[in-house]
Design brief:
The complex is a heterodimer of chains A (290) and B (358). With 290 residues, chain A is mainly alpha-helical. Chain A has a domain at 15-216. Chain A is built from eleven helices and two strands, in the order ααααββααααααα. Chain A has helices at residues 3-31, 38-56, 60-87, 91-113, 140-162, 164-174, 176-181, 186-211, 219-233, 238-259, 264-278, and strands spanning 129-131, 137-139. In chain A, a hairpin with a 5-residue loop joins strand 1 (129-131) and strand 2. In chain A, helix 1 (3-31) runs antiparallel to helix 8, helix 2 (38-56) crosses helix 9 and helix 6 crosses helix 8. Chain A is globular, with a radius of gyration of 19 Å. Chain B is mainly α. In chain B, 70% of the residues lie in helices and 4% in strands. Chain B has helices spanning 22-39, 41-45, 47-73, 81-97, 102-124, 129-148, 162-166, 169-196, 198-208, 210-215, 220-246, 251-254, 257-270, 276-292, 297-313, 317-326, and strands at residues 5-6, 15-18, 159-160, 248-249, 336-339, 349-350. In chain B, the strands form two sheets. In chain B, strands 1-2-5-6 form a four-stranded antiparallel sheet, with no helix packed on it. Chain B has a two-stranded antiparallel sheet with strand order 3-4. The chains are: A mainly alpha (290), B mainly alpha (358). Chains A and B meet through helix 3, helix 4, helix 9 and helix 11 of A and helix 6, helix 13 and helix 15 of B.
Chain lengths: 290, 358
């Protein structure tokens, strides 16, 4: 793999990280909840899709909308049934409870599906690529995932800026009490936010499951990548998470190109640490969090 | 502890302020007795139970250090496994490369942990609240990946601590036992005396309301930094003891997130923000481990659900529930108000704001 190719792969990988990061950022933005189970919630839809595909026997791509609906409902119920109770009690309880959820989810998946890697078979699409020249080829799947991240962020921006529900999201984010006094049902809004976050995560999670294999233990890695993308990009900025994802993806692929694949993830972390040290507010920060 | 002062009469009632009640002194006497029995335990206890108690003490110490950070400074870390791993590998460095007695190497491991904690704190403290937690996790991952890429320590497959194997069972098992007991006593002692000091007042103030504490002149950043460094050094010490105990270090095990899972469950279930909480939590954890750990995943699911249930319905854990009902502390930290003549009835009023309900 040469440099131009590594850079291309890195940018495309950034789109995937952005898809994971947007959900984390949305949940944090609307209710100041740091969801440590977020990584495992990107793995869960892959298993849901696997069950849907096994039950209905069709192409995994068709399972995406069904899985999105299932995950939205799951997120809504999780928030209303459990997480709403701890949102107001401070971020420490949020961390503890979501860490507990993460451990429960991970072990439930291990129990149900074992630690073996699974895959979703979509046929030949998985390996198709656009050959630009002898040294540079862009895979269709990574490209689709990247384009999906652009679509998701654009739609999310329109949703937040132009719709009544989006206005409610922003109102709840700015001032919970004032929003409640204006007749907004905070508990419903938070639940919808969690549902939307999981719906977005499903797109990335299932696409990634089609592209490579997955197992229940991948969650913590995904959480960390999503978090790094959010922090690099700047809190509260959707396009920032895309930028953060791209920087992280580039750091990993270029790091692998320079030092070998064993160092790839470490180089990503180091770039994150350097940016955190020099520019803790991120590149495109919008909101100042209290 | 023994600061009974008689103040001027208020109305027609005289009152006194003291930290410890009579029951506390009885508990103290009993505690010293237990400590003596525990100290000589390896002589008669047999190797399997001695080894089991090493696990108990090390987990108790980890939970206590974590509790010091979260319960008193409001710092939530899910990256303490980074310091445990660093402690293990520092021990290997001192024992097998520099040929220092492994039991002395434990002290150097603590120093190593503190040295790593200082720049890490500068980084993660830039993040707020829950994001700080993930930041500590990233630091732990960075440390793990660096260690796993070092060829000298066997990379991902780990390395045997030769100096520890050479010690022989009859020296190694009691030695690790006493270090384990020692680190547990250090963890409880440091927490207790830190909280009884000026810094302790600052910590309790931060726990109750960090904004109010800061406006009363508490240096929030520095106080948090102290607890983070103490916890880092303590966890590294435990890592070193565990390395001697297991004779082998491996990045995946030494830097495992499962450490944080255990610590978190123990502290949360027992009760955050009290010294007694982690002790009770560790006992509960051990009973669970001995009875259900053979069910593998179910065991983790039960632990996770317990932590969720306790946090939602009784955020101060089991001990917090006891305190709310009785206002009794095994390790008395708050000054209590006693009315003269009523002392025998053990009627006390919390004189300070440091109530368990926080």
């Amino acid at each position: 793999m040469d440099w131009l190719n590594a850079a291309t792969q890195g940018i495309l990988l950034g789109g995937l990280y952005a898809l994971f990061a947007v959900g984390l950022s949305l949940v944090f933005g609307t209710m100041r909840l740091t969801n440590l189970a977020h990584g495992d919630l990107t793995i869960l839809p892959a298993y849901v899709a696997l069950m849907v595909v096994n039950a209905l026997r069709f192409n995994p791509f068709y399972s995406i909308p069904i899985t999105m609906v299932i995950m939205f409902v799951f997120g809504y119920l999780l928030q209303r049934g459990l997480l709403n109770a701890i949102v107001k009690t401070g971020d420490v309880n949020g961390v503890i409870v979501t860490f507990g959820i993460s451990i429960v989810l991970q072990n439930a998946l291990l129990l149900g599906f074992t630690a073996n890697s699974q895959g979703l078979d979509a046929g030949t699409v998985e390996n198709l690529s656009i050959k630009i020249n002898d040294r540079l080829a862009v895979g269709w799947l990574p490209l689709i995932i990247f384009l999906m991240s652009l679509v998701v962020i654009t739609v999310l921006q329109i949703f937040m800026g132009r719709t009544k529900m989006g206005r409610a999201f922003r109102a709840v984010s700015d001032d919970q009490e004032a929003a409640r006094l204006m007749g907004i049902n905070n508990k419903h809004i938070w639940a919808v936010a969690m549902g939307v976050a999981l719906l977005i995560v499903t797109i990335g999670g299932v696409m990634m499951a089609i592209r490579t294999t997955f197992d229940p233990l991948l969650g913590s890695q995904r959480l960390i990548y999503a978090f790094e993308a959010v922090v690099i990009g700047g809190m509260g900025s959707a396009w920032g998470t895309l930028l953060g994802g791209i920087i992280l993806g580039l750091a990993q692929t270029l790091g692998a190109q320079a030092f070998g694949s064993a160092w790839s993830i470490l180089v990503g972390h180091v770039v994150f640490v350097v940016i955190l040290a020099l520019r803790p507010q991120g590149f495109l920060a919008k909101t100042v969090t209290s | 502890m023994n600061t009974t002062t008689t103040a001027a009469p208020m109305g027609d009632k005289k009152f006194s302020v003291s930290v410890a009640s009579r029951t506390n002194y009885m508990v103290l006497g009993f505690g010293i007795l237990v400590l003596i029995v525990l100290a000589v335990f390896p002589v008669f206890g047999g190797t399997p139970w001695t080894r089991r108690l090493v696990d108990f003490f090390t987990l108790l110490a980890l939970a206590q250090f974590w509790n010091l950070m979260l319960g008193y400074a409001g710092l939530i870390s899910v990256g303490q496994q980074g310091y445990i791993g660093i402690g293990s590998y520092t021990l290997w460095l001192f024992a097998d490369v520099l040929h220092i007695n492994p039991f002395i190497g434990v002290i150097f491991a603590a120093i190593g942990g503190a040295i790593i904690a200082l720049p890490s704190a500068a980084l993660v403290f830039k993040l707020k609240g829950g994001y700080l937690a993930i930041g500590t996790w990233v630091i732990a991952e960075v440390l793990r990946l660096i260690v796993a890429n070092i060829k000298r320590t066997g990379g991902g497959s780990g390395i045997t601590i030769q100096a520890a194997t050479k010690l022989g069972t009859e020296v190694r098992v009691p030695g690790t036992y006493w270090w384990g007991l020692g680190v547990a006593v250090i963890a409880i002692g440091v927490t207790y005396f830190l909280l009884r000091s000026r810094t302790g007042l600052a910590l309790e103030a931060i726990r109750d309301n960090d904004l109010a504490a800061e406006s009363s002149g508490v240096n929030l950043w520095r106080t948090k930094l102290y607890t983070y460094i103490i916890a880092g050094a303590g966890c590294a010490m435990v890592g070193a003891i565990v390395a001697i105990h297991l004779l082998r270090v491996q990045p995946a095990a030494a830097f495992s997130i499962n450490w944080t899972a255990y610590i978190l469950f123990i502290t949360v279930i027992g009760g955050v923000g009290t010294i007694e909480g982690p002790v009770i939590g560790t006992v509960i954890y051990f009973v669970l481990r001995e009875t259900t750990s053979k069910y593998g995943e179910w065991y983790f699911i039960v632990l996770g659900l317990l932590a969720i249930v306790v946090t939602v319905w009784s955020p101060r854990g089991l001990y917090g529930y006891v305190v709310r009902k009785t206002n009794f502390f095994l390790f008395p930290l708050q000054r209590k108000l006693y009315y003269e003549g009523e002392r025998k009835k053990r009627k006390s009023v919390a004189a300070e704001s440091g109530e368990a309900a926080g």
